[in-house]
Task: structure prediction
Amino acid sequence: MIEIDVCLARNTGFRLEVNFSAPERGVTALFGRSGSGKTTIIQVVAGSVRPDRGRIAVGDDVFFDSEQGIDLPMERRGVGYVFQDARLFPHMTVENNLRYGERRSRRARTIRFDAVVDMLGIGHLLKRRPHTLSGGEKQRVAIGRALLSQPRLLLMDEPLASLDEMRKGEILPYLERLRDELLLPILYVSHSVEEVLRLSDAVAAVADGKVIACGGLADVLSQPELLPVLGRFDLGTILDCTVTAHDEEFGLSTVSFPDGELRVPLVGRPVGAAARVRIRSRDVSLSLSRPIDVSVTNRLSGTIASITRAEGPFSDVEVALAHGKLHSLVTQESVQRLALEPGMAVWAMIKAVTVDSRPAGFNSPGAEFRSPSPVSRRHQPAATLPALRVIAGGTPPRETS
Ligand SMILES: Nc1ncnc2c1ncn2[C@@H]1O[C@H](COP(=O)(O)OP(=O)(O)OP(=O)(O)O)[C@@H](O)[C@H]1O
Result:
C-alpha cells in the first residue's frame, strides 16, 4: 500500500491533514476542487515539500517518518513526476530529454528506452526540440522522461489540464496503456470526473486539506453527500460489470452485474471482460408500477433507501437493488406527486443510450490485469496505438484468459 499520513500548516493559513492509503498498483485519483490540497499531497510524497509531521511509505520503502527522523531526499524516493506543463529542457532534443530521466535514475533499469518510446508513440520526435512539439506531444515526452527515471511510483499532477479536448483525447489512450502495461502505481491529480472515470480505479476525494472519502471509484463517486464539497459533476452510479453479449446490428452490448443485466452502447471489450458502466442520476427515472409499454430499455426493481434534497428543484433518490444501489435525480415535485418515501418499491428505468461504459482498468474490483484485446483495440483510435510490447527486462504483465 501507499500510506500517507501527514500534517502541514502553510503560512497562508492552509492546513493539510490527511491520513489515507492507496493501492500499490493501478491509478488512484486525487479528486477535488481547486485549492483543496491535491498538489500539496503530491509534493509531500515527491519530497519537494516537507510535512510538519507524519509518515509516508510506499510498500516497505519509508519516504518520511517524523518520529523516526526519516526524510529521504527527492532523488532517493524513486518517484517520477509529471506536471501540468511538460517542463522539458528547451535546449535538449527529445531524445536527450528522455535520456536525462534515464541517467538520473539510481534504480535498476527495468523500463527500457525503446519500449517507452514505442509505448508513447514518440519515436518520430526524437531528434526534435521541445518548441517544435504540440502540447500533447510534449506531455508524452514528459511522461516518457518520468518513466525512464525508473520510478517505483508515478505522480501525475493534472497532466492533461493544459491541453484542449482533442489533445486530451489523443493522450488518454497512452495513459490507459501505461496503466495497463506497467505494474506501476500512479497517483493522479485531476479536477475532471471524466478523466477519473476513465483512468482510475481508486479515488481519494480531497476537500479543505482533508481526504474526506477514499476507496473504490464506484463507492466514492456515488456518494451524493460529496457533491457540495467536490464541486459539480454529473453524479451517478458506477457499476463494475461483465460483458455478456454484443449485438452489432443494433450497436448495443449486454453487460451483467449482480442485480441483473443492462443494454448499453457497444463496449470495446470481448465477452467475458470487465466493463465499467456509469449511469447518471439524471438519466434514471422511477415508476411505481412495472413499466410495460415504454421505450426505455433497462428496468431494474428496487426499494427506495433514502431521499435527499439536491440542488435546485431536485432530490436524489437512492434505490436499493438486491445487491447494489442506484441513484435517481427527480424533481421534488415528482417526489410529492408520487408520494415517494423510503421503503417503497419502485422500478428504475435507464435508457440504453444514456449509459456510459468503458473498459475497466485491471485494478477494478474482481478484474485481473488483461492485455488490451483485439476487440478493445478495434474501438480505440488506431493511429494512437502502436503495436503492444512488453517492456523487456521488466516484470511481465500477468495474463488471464
Ligand atoms: N508554497 C505555498 N505556500 C503557501 N501556501 C500554499 C503554497 N502552495 C499552495 N498553497 C496553498 O495551499 C492550498 C492548497 O493548494 P494546492 O495547490 O495543494 O491545491 P490543489 O487542490 O492542487 O489546487 P488546484 O486544483 O487549483 O491545483 C491553497 O490554499 C494554496 O493557496
